[in-house]
Amino acid sequence: MVIALSLALVLAAPVSPIPGVPFPPGGEIDPVLTQVFTDRAAAETRQAVARLDADTSRTAAEKAELKTRLGKLKIAVFTTSKSVDESVAAYERQLPQSRFIFAERNLEADIRDGIKSGAIQADAAAVAKAVGQRGRSARWNRADGALEIDIEDRLIDPRTGAIVVKTIVLVTSLAD
Length: 176
Known about the structure:
Elements: H1 2-12, E1 28-29, H2 31-54, H3 60-70, E2 74-80, H4 84-94, E3 101-106, H5 107-117, H6 124-130, E4 134-141, E5 147-156, E6 163-173
Antiparallel strand pairs: 1-2, 2-6, 3-4, 4-5, 5-6
Helix pairs in contact: 5-6
């Protein structure tokens, strides 16, 4: 009976879109933000491939290998009601090799940088609202660079520059 119940719970758990990376505690996938970040990454990938094609310092084999790796890109954006600290603790338990690095963010500077790079579509009003606002983040990269998990307590919505007070987990994978 206990085994059957345990199996039922495991099978009922949502499957992460990134193999090997579980949902954050109490988390759910945000399909809209996942699509926004995936679209932005696709545009950046197209630019990177164009630069790679123009690069005469790399061999054809190196270029092919890099393009194959870029073709494996997967992105998932999760939201959770848990704090950054609770989310990090859960990931460090579930992914024993992970050790996150914490940082404090200047949201005004992040918005300005995002606008300058084209990653954030916002106006001066969004920048003005961000003055003096800080955020916390934690980041972990797998040693081979094929997996990154970013956890933030405030999301700057790339579509508007609005600051959303919610724990966001952005997972980026280049793994098989």
